[in-house]
């Protein structure tokens, strides 16, 4: 299998003009969070519920004709400050723009389910459990009618193109259906096939010699690269230095420096770090910041995270080497006496 990875700015510009293509998005979205009992088989046509990540349904506007399927977002309850990482597996047709309908277990991790509806913010991050990308041919596919799906991608997919392996043909871009398959109504013809896959950052991966095999996830042996700053809610700077050291332990506590801004007082904030997921080249974690003082505190903390930030949420941050300097955003910058807030990040050992 031949594999080529590249970033093609011209191609990225072209595909982002298509109506149902996912567009690069590092902004923070706001809306309302609800929950439902998801059991697999949603609009994104993933047959089973993943056992390594929670799921959610995206509102129809942001679903964009299945463009967000398989993308991963971090959803934060504005009321509690708690966050949860979910993969988009379904569409919520009745939800307003910005809304996310969470699986009940995901909702319960950030707020009380008796509320039913809560204010939220959310942002895209790299899929922390992606592994290699997979291709999956839909049941009924043949050389005369062919539908294929991309799975386990790091970021949302913007375009899928194909050609016959060994031919001199240029790639043909496939239209994407609302049920998250790329379809050639007249078929691909006799294979095997080459594919060019593009994510919403404009990164492209080419894989060759793929045979049409049904009922099998075909491992492409490759993946997009993590984009520094991709999915960050706000960042003032980032470092490209790399580190191979381990992340913080799953539960640790320390006292971190804090500086005063408008409102609050100067004092020490306490932090604890929980590793939410990890893999060979990085990890994602949640940091809890607590004000132990008897007066309000505007906090800034410094933590050695042993990695380079690739995305962060609910925090203003900068990084020098592996040292993360973090402070609150508008709604969590000042903590009342005894109060806590959370922010999260994902980091890479390879950047």
Automatic annotation (TrEMBL):
Keyword Chloroplast: no
Keyword check for Aminoacyl-tRNA synthetase: no
One Pfam family per UniProt: DPBB_1
PROSITE patterns attached to this UniProt entry: CBM2 (PS51173), CBM2_A (PS00561)
Keyword terms of this UniProt record: Disulfide bond, Glycosidase, Hydrolase, Signal
Residue numbers spanned by region Disordered: 224-274
One Gene Ontology molecular-function label: hydrolase activity, hydrolyzing O-glycosyl compounds
Span of domain CBM2: 262-351
Stored InterPro entries: CBD2 (IPR001919), CBM2/CBM3_carb-bd_dom_sf (IPR008965), CBM2_carb-bd_dom_sf (IPR012291), CBM2_CS (IPR018366), Expansin_CBD_sf (IPR036749), Expansin_CellWall (IPR051477), Expansin_EXLX1-like (IPR049818), RlpA-like_DPBB (IPR009009)
Low complexity compositional bias, start-end: 233-263
A Gene Ontology biological process term: carbohydrate metabolic process
Signal peptide annotation: 1-24
PANTHER family (UniProt xref): EXPANSIN-LIKE PROTEIN 7, PTHR31836
UniProt-recorded name of the protein: Expansin (Peptidoglycan-binding protein)
Species for this entry: Microbulbifer rhizosphaerae
């Amino acid at each position: 299998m031949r594999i080529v990875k590249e970033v093609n700015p011209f191609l990225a510009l072209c595909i982002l003009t298509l109506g149902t293509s996912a567009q690069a998005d590092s902004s923070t979205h706001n809306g309302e969070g609800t929950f439902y009992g998801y059991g697999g088989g949603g609009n994104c046509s993933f047959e089973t519920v993943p056992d390594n990540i929670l799921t959610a349904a995206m509102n129809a506007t942001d679903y964009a004709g299945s463009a967000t399927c398989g993308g991963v977002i971090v959803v934060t309850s504005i009321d509690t400050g708690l966050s949860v990482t979910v993969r988009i597996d379904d569409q919520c047709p009745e939800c307003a723009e910005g809304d996310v309908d969470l699986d009940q277990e995901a909702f319960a991790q950030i707020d009380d389910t008796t509320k039913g509806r809560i204010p939220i913010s959310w942002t895209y991050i790299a899929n922390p459990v992606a592994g290699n990308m997979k291709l999956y041919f839909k049941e009924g596919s043949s050389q005369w009618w062919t539908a294929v799906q991309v799975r386990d991608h790091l970021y949302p997919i913007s375009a899928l193109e194909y050609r016959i392996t060994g031919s001199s043909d240029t790639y043909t871009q496939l239209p994407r259906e609302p049920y998250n398959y790329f379809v050639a109504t007249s078929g691909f013809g006799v294979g095997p096939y080459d594919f060019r896959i593009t994510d919403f950052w404009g990164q492209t991966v080419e894989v060759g010699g793929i045979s049409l095999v049904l009922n099998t996830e075909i491992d492409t042996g490759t993946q997009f690269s993590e984009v520094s700053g991709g999915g960050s809610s706000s960042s003032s700077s980032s470092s490209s230095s790399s580190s191979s050291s381990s992340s913080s332990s799953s539960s640790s506590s320390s006292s971190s420096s804090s500086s005063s801004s408008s409102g609050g007082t100067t004092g020490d904030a306490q932090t604890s770090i929980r590793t939410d997921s990890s893999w060979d080249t990085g990890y994602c974690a949640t940091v809890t910041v607590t004000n132990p003082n008897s007066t309000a505190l505007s906090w800034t903390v410094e933590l050695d995270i042993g990695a380079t930030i690739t995305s962060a949420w609910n925090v203003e941050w900068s990084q020098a080497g592996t040292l993360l300097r973090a402070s609150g955003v508008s709604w969590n910058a000042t903590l009342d006496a005894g109060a806590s807030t959370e922010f999260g990040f994902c980091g890479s050992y390879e950047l």
